[in-house]
């Protein structure tokens, strides 16, 4: 698909569709965020400022999409969390929406439908893996929540001790 600007110039088609994904709490604080375009929001300060602005514009809105600072942002809220996927201003909103749905549904399955801040914080490692399974460097890898969860779900009993995270080892020692 070739995009045309108002002036009639063409955008080259690209696989680098997603500019960033983030999850914010109900106060606009970052839970998890990944930005893929090295030319926009390059510093943590710029990212957090953008996230605060994004949250302020969306936390009371009834919409699912917003244009902000030259980015198309689709979002979804649940209990005390806000999920966002950002793309360029000329990006297809339906593609961004499918990434958002994949992110939300994957997290929902990973957390056994208990999508809230406390549970996400307890399972942040799995949620981070889901982020990586959905998108790599701005390229969409997968949008099927079942297959994303299949690869992102941590099965500690299958993982050798040397490859487990400290959190997994501590958690497993408490279960014993």
UniProtKB/TrEMBL annotation:
It is found in: Cytoplasm; Golgi apparatus membrane; Cytoplasmic vesicle, COPI-coated vesicle membrane. Keywords: Cytoplasm, Cytoplasmic vesicle, ER-Golgi transport, Golgi apparatus, Membrane, Protein transport, Transport. Its main location: cytoplasm. GO terms for biological process: intra-Golgi vesicle-mediated transport; intracellular protein transport; retrograde vesicle-mediated transport, Golgi to endoplasmic reticulum. It holds the Pfam family Clat_adaptor_s. Residues 18-156 form the AP complex mu/sigma subunit domain. GO terms for cellular component: COPI vesicle coat; Golgi membrane. It is a peripheral membrane protein. The keyword Magnesium does not apply. Oligomeric complex that consists of at least the alpha, beta, beta', gamma, delta, epsilon and zeta subunits. The coatomer is a cytosolic protein complex that binds to dilysine motifs and reversibly associates with Golgi non-clathrin-coated vesicles, which further mediate biosynthetic protein transport from the ER, via the Golgi up to the trans Golgi network. Coatomer complex is required for budding from Golgi membranes, and is essential for the retrograde Golgi-to-ER transport of dilysine-tagged proteins. The zeta subunit may be involved in regulating the coat assembly and, hence, the rate of biosynthetic protein transport due to its association-dissociation properties with the coatomer complex. Belongs to the adaptor complexes small subunit family. This is Coatomer subunit zeta. It comes from Papilio xuthus.
């Amino acid at each position: 698909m070739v995009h045309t600007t108002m002036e009639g110039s063409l955008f080259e088609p690209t696989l680098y569709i997603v500019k960033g994904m983030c999850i914010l709490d109900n106060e606009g604080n970052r839970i998890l965020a990944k930005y893929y375009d090295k030319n926009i929001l390059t510093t943590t300060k710029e990212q957090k400022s953008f996230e605060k602005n994004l949250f302020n514009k969306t936390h009371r809105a009834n919409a699912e999409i917003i244009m902000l600072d030259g980015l198309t942002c689709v979002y979804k809220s649940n209990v005390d969390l806000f999920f966002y996927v950002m793309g360029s201003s000329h990006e297809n909103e339906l593609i961004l929406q499918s990434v958002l749905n994949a992110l939300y549904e994957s997290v929902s399955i990973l957390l056994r439908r208990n999508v809230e801040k406390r549970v996400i914080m307890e399972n942040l490692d799995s949620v981070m893996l889901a982020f990586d399974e959905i998108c790599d460097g701005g390229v969409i890898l997968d949008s099927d929540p079942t297959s994303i969860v299949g690869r992102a779900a941590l099965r500690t009993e299958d993982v050798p001790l040397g490859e487990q995270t400290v959190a997994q080892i501590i958690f497993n020692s408490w279960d014993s």
